[in-house]
Design brief:
Number of strands: 20
Number of helices: 12
Structural class: alpha/beta
Strand order of the largest sheet: 2-3-4-5-6-8-9-10
Distance between the termini: 11 Å
Strand content: 25-35%
Radius of gyration: 24 Å
Length: about 375
């Protein structure tokens, strides 16, 4: 079965590295705060079910999702831990959120009234309040906490419980913690105005960067995402273990004379005799088109530059000077081969984007192959 998955192009998911990154978060924050593992967007493209299966024995507090459907999918695979719905849901999705016993993060009173209407003695519901301290995309305004705090408190019933409060940092992966400190100060000012005791609420603010860099912001729980999946959160932060490798087969090798052109628009012209390898991966698999004429792959442990534009299903690399390359050999787009590594963040930089977009852009056409010493599978 594994050979079938690796016939064209595939994504390798190192579950040992995923767990190692979870332990790094735990080491950074200490033993007390809970860890809400973010598994939204199908665990950043790696597969939520396999990620949850790998993390469950490590005891996360719960899991963070962005949609009601994602929460429902976790319940269907047997997750019993809390599921935090971190993005504002549409009114049409609240029923599904309630049925999956999600904890809603509430951003305005209208949303809270709708959530209360979905609660009942047979189905009591929880919510956390999202406080906007500068991110702008969701949450109650921190400056008006006294007013909306009273309204939120009055909306609570025996069937609707206010159990947490949160905010989201906008720049915690930067070298300067001044923006993060400002948001933290605003957040605490808002909490001080609430008509409930801080001890009665679960307080969580730290994303990956804040969690591994600054223990002061750990509060009651942290919400790591990209760090778990091998993405860097800043040069001054601990480095995560690489979790994802992307590999593809060379399907054609040929020598071309000077003047030969490659790809749509003929954006690469051979200046001398060159040897080209056609790799069975393209933007239809999630390989960013920006990597045309600027990306690098690893072939037989050496670097091979991408030449020409990325096509939907194929990419050409210059393998001139790399001996013994044949059709069927493996090209590494992300990952290690020999002495070289193409890191997730390096590929993202070449594509002028971020690691999050690279991971979540990997299409389902690329099968996910698990590497997991815990089960003896590979």
């Amino acid at each position: 079965m594994l050979e079938d998955l690796e016939t064209r192009a595939w994504v390798e998911v190192d579950l040992d590295a995923l767990r190692a990154n979870f332990h790094k978060v735990r080491s950074a924050i200490g033993p007390r705060p809970g860890i809400i593992a973010m598994v939204k967007a199908d665990a950043y493209g790696l597969g939520a079910e396999r990620v949850v299966r790998a993390l469950e024995p490590l005891g996360p507090w719960g899991y963070g999702v962005a949609t009601a459907d994602e929460g429902a999918a976790l319940r269907r695979i047997g997750v019993e831990r809390p599921i935090l719905l971190c993005a504002p849901p549409s009114p049409q999705s609240l029923r599904a959120a309630a049925e999956s016993r999600a904890i809603l993060t509430v951003s305005d009173m209208e949303m809270l009234w709708r959530w209360r209407s979905a609660a009942s003695p047979d189905r009591p519901l929880e919510f956390h309040v999202d406080i906007d301290t500068g991110m702008g995309r969701a949450g109650f305004d921190w400056r008006d906490a006294h007013a909306w705090g009273a309204a939120v408190k009055n909306a609570c019933t025996d069937d609707l419980m206010w159990t947490g409060v949160m905010t989201h940092f906008q720049n915690s992966d930067g070298p300067d913690d001044a923006p993060t400190q400002l948001q933290w100060s605003r957040f605490n000012d808002a909490i001080a105005q609430l008509p409930v005791s801080r001890e009665d609420l679960m307080v969580h603010v730290a994303n990956s960067a804040a969690a591994v860099k600054w223990r002061d912001y750990s509060a009651d729980a942290v919400r790591p995402g990209i760090f778990l999946y091998g993405g860097s959160v800043g040069a001054d932060a601990p480095a995560p273990e690489p979790v994802v490798s992307v590999r593809a087969r060379l399907v054609l090798v040929k020598d071309v004379p000077p003047g030969s052109t490659c790809g749509y628009g003929a954006t690469h012209v051979a200046r001398n005799w060159e040897r080209w390898g056609t790799v069975a991966i393209g933007y239809g698999d999630g390989l960013p088109r920006k990597l045309g004429n600027r990306g690098t792959m690893l072939v037989r442990g050496q670097k091979a530059k991408v030449v020409g534009r990325i096509s939907m299903d194929m990419t050409v690399v210059d393998i001139t000077g790399i001996p013994e390359v044949t059709a069927g050999d493996i090209a590494t787009i992300i990952g290690s081969d020999g002495a070289f590594e193409m890191s997730l963040d390096e590929v993202a930089s070449h594509a002028e984007t971020i690691s999050y977009e690279i991971l979540t852009g990997l299409r389902p056409r690329l099968p996910r192959v698990e590497k997991d010493s815990w089960t003896g599978s590979s």
